[in-house]
Amino acid sequence: MGKSGVLMHITSLPSPYGIGTMGRAAYEFADFVAGSGMAVWQVLPIGPTGYGDSPYQAFSTFAGNPNLIDLDLLLKGGILAAEDLSDLYFGDDPLRVDYGAVVYAHGEALRRAFKRSGEALREAVEAFREDNPWLREYALFMAVKGHFGGVSWQQWPDDAIRLHEEAAVAHYSELLKEETAYYAFVQYLFFKQWNALKAYANKKGVKLLGDMPIYVAPDSSDIWSESDLFLLDDDKRPTFVAGVPPDYFSTEGQLWGNPLYDWDAMKREDYAWWK
Questions:
Q1: Do 166 and 102 meet the contact criterion of CB atoms below 8 Å apart?
Q2: What gap in Å lies between CA 211 and CA 43, rounded to an integer?
Q3: Where are the beta strands (DSSP E) in 8-87?
Q4: Coil, strand, or helix at residue 59?
Q5: Which of 47, 28, 13, 71 is nearest to 200 (CA)?
Q6: Residue 151 pairs with which residues in a beta bridge?
Q7: Whole-structure pTM over 0.90, yes or no?
Q8: Whole-angstrom Cα distance, residue 6 to residue 9?
């Protein structure tokens, strides 16, 4: 028996904070899908968007997009206070996302949430870290990226950490301990809201259908920390990149720039990264 559904990315939902989130509008949309007799809600990739704000170029295959965290739910949970948001500008166009404003304002709001509630939630965040091994590398990747002004890891001025050398990883993990704690805190918040939304939709008889990019973004924690699983040279530069030949969509073809997978290396690890 077939099922019908609808594609609606979370960012397109209405919100007072400049971009759709996993808050009230998402729950109302789940109600709409169920009430319409549909059984599937498909979303675009929910990873943390990188250059160009594309959901298909994420800083991590596993992490969630901080901009999708609903701030009203944080207010309701006492993780944020109203004064934490009073001076933040999220954009003023109800039809378009001002990504510059949203990324800054959401980031500032989450920083304030961490300052206000990070210590109280530390135990819960640590448990979340233990259950999600990918988080250690992602949090360090984002912390080091911030430390070097946000540039791609391929341009980090310290070759030791760029090449993911063990001593450098230990050094920066200690140096940026508070920053990595912040990024872990944000992911804890994201997945708490995501799992709650999923549970609600499922209870209504609606399945969430995900989407994922074909390839991993060049500027991502995955390629930085798991470089052996991709076709890179000794300096961790791609030897081959993804694209498509000319077609009806583009007469010149497309060069995506994503490093290709090293399937032999993945097979030797029994595809652990994929699993």
A1: no
A2: 6
A3: 40-42
A4: coil
A5: 28
A6: none
A7: yes
A8: 10
Q: Tell me, what amino acid is at 263?
A: W
Candidates 122, 153, 157; CA nearest to 227 is 153
Condensed to tens digits (0 to 9), the pLDDT of residues 171-212 reads 999 999 999 999 999 999 999 999 999 999 999 999 999 988
Q: What is the residue whose two structure tokens read 């989130």? A: 21
How many CA atoms does the CB half-sphere of 53 hold within 13 Å?
Answer: 13
- What are phi and psi for residue 140, nearest 5 degrees? -70, -40
Show Cβ contacts of residue 110 under 8 Å, excluding neighbours closer than 6 positions. Answer: 66, 69, 182, 186, 189
By the 10 Å C-beta count (0-12 exposed, 13-18 middle, 19+ buried), 252 is classed as exposed
User: How far is residue 263's CA from residue 242's CA, in Å, rounded to a whole number?
Assistant: 14
Rounded to the nearest 5 degrees, what angle is found at the Cα of 217, between the Cα atoms of 211 and 220? 110
Gyration radius of the chain over CA positions: 20
Among 74, 70, 94, which Cα is nearest to 84's? 74
Distance of CA 251 to the CA centre of its chain: 32
